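Ticket 4471: requesting a sanity check on a complex prediction with 1-deoxynojirimycin. Repro inputs:
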Amino acid sequence: MQALIRPSAIALSIGLSLGCGGALAQDAAPAADVSQSSQAAPKYQSIAGADSPDKVLHVDVLLSGDGNLSYQVTRNGHTVIEPSRLGLILANAPKLDRYFSYDTSATTSHDDTWELPWGERRVVKNHYTELRVDVVQKKWQDRRMTVVFRIYDDGIGFRYEFPDQPQLKKLEIMDELTEFAVADTATAWWNVAGEWNREEYVYQKTPLKEVAEAQSPMTLKTDKGLYISFHEAALVDYAAYWLRRVDGQRLKTRLAPSALGAPVVREAPFPTPWRTIQITDSAAKLYNSSDLILNLNEPNKLGDVSWVKPYKYVGIWWQMHLNTGTWEYGPRHAANNENTKKHMDFAAKNGFRGVLVEGWNKGWEDWFARGDDFSFTQSYPDFDLPALSAYGLKKGVHLVGHHETSGNVAVYEPQMEDGFKLYAKYGVDSVKTGYVADAGGAKVKAPDGSIRFAWNDSQEMVRHYVLNVRTAAKYKIAINTHEPIKDTGLRRTYPNWVSREGQRGMEYNAWGDPQNPPEHEANLIFTRMLTGPMDFTPGILSLQGQGKPLISTQAKQLALYVVLYSPIQMAADLPENYAKYPKPFQFIKDVPVDWEQSIMLNGEVGDFATIARKDRASDNWYVGAVTDEQARDVEVPLSFLDANRSYTAQIYRDGPNAGMTGDARFDIVIESKPVTAGETLKIRLAPGGGMAIRLVAGKAKK
Ligand code: NOJ
Ligand code: CA
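Returned structure tokens:
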């Protein structure tokens, strides 16, 4: 371990005001002061700093004023994040905001790889410099805090660590003071936070200085061509943060409130979640850099997870969203024995492992945002769980369980373990959960036994989501959470947390008020999808919602299986609709869900994206591309292919007359041709369109 203690402070404010990019070269001599009298004290003192492994990013930790702590980030010498505050406000003790003095610091480097049991890639590289800075508040009985930075070439993570100390045993955290002050003028793609519809909003694209309060992740493009994403990693036993714009381009974290008191209550020692900033010089690199979030999470805590299976599934689902069937028991009850068997037969015939059945259990009569009546062990009379599960398993088809809770955790938690036990008894090894409550409408039990309303990203709910996944793991059950806590990479620690929703999925196209706009997926890929898998439920080849046509081409529906990563993917349309379109349906049957490697080839936030992925189980590659409302010619350089093989490209692309309305949506060309690694395919995407390619590997040449 190499100690990094600086003999003297660097006059940072002078460098900044000179407009020299604020470069904080570690050993730079103090710059001349031209902005103020040479007697003026420097505003910031750098107390520690470190470079990323290839010296692309550099972080400095600063003290200013009366011991205010902040940090700054530069990229190749150019300031990306200007001095931004660090600290916390407590309810039970003086603030952790000033009177800090420097104690010690240390840098270490780390370079290894680890394997994802399932994922966008098998091998993840983890190469960073760690900078630990210990600070002390002498004024408050020597209270101590450590700020830890992990500095990668394409992003940083930092967190606060609180040691065991009698003078700060219990922390009631009212708010964090953590800031992100963006240096260059930027455009933001963002979702409002703290509003009734949780994360499920149409993305807004505005100048950063017009953002109000945003959910993370939030993505920026600066006028210097940098792409930035703010998010968090390893959100455990803590409230999620929202990003509130303070002034100009300065954002501040705000912790999701609690109905019980301070947003976070913890006993030291503990670390906060990591606050993350991905920084790259292209949109494609931003997407390709998102292993940062996984790397900042703890390794797998579940041991052997070979029981967690990636899979494709169909389900008794879209018909409820079309309102041609109901969840509750009655004449149109969809979760009945006959319908389940029909779906199982269809799944077996087409090679899908799973059949999701929603509405199988009692309590759906008045469920919306209420959930008081749900039973997680009692079926409606027309649904025979043991018999149906056995019927499916004989055909190699697994029932996918469903726990809708309406966000009523107070009713769910006492039944949760029994619910999983029941499923495990009958061979159900994955469960979709649901928390349909408006934001702030989840119900939790307070320590005094009373029922309190909670945000779905409050500390209480963060605890619940993790408890749910850990309890499921005891029964070797995988979880797909809808209306979830945002993804912060916990699938590394709990690999049975296979997917989640957390943005507007396909269901909005069924309801249609309004539907997802054509740019929605091109927004998702560079925002929500940076955090991990999404159960978007693609593949609506009928292109028809409740009375409203989908604004999409058929080829785009196929592309979604490649561009929107999830280890579980639904073929969401009705079986009878797939029967009408056997040729495009073939791609849905062929496409895998578990990948050896993934590479974004090209893309722009909110406009388009082209992604190539290699199957984990074969030598085949798959490519998907989507566009917004603009037609586009995308290039697919096939340099990722093995030069020692030839391939057959099975191409599903928008036809010459394709478009996003009327019959034009169904104009699809399906063609096959030989290709090799040296070639670049040029493919036209229609407005609202997309394309999908399966590259079938021939034998390797000797
Ligand atoms: C919302 C989920 O996103 C959807 O998939 C599910 O069908 C309903 N809740 C009912 O649980
Ligand atoms: Ca939902």
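Notes from triage: The CA atoms of residues 176 and 288 lie 29 Å apart. Leaving this open until the requester confirms.
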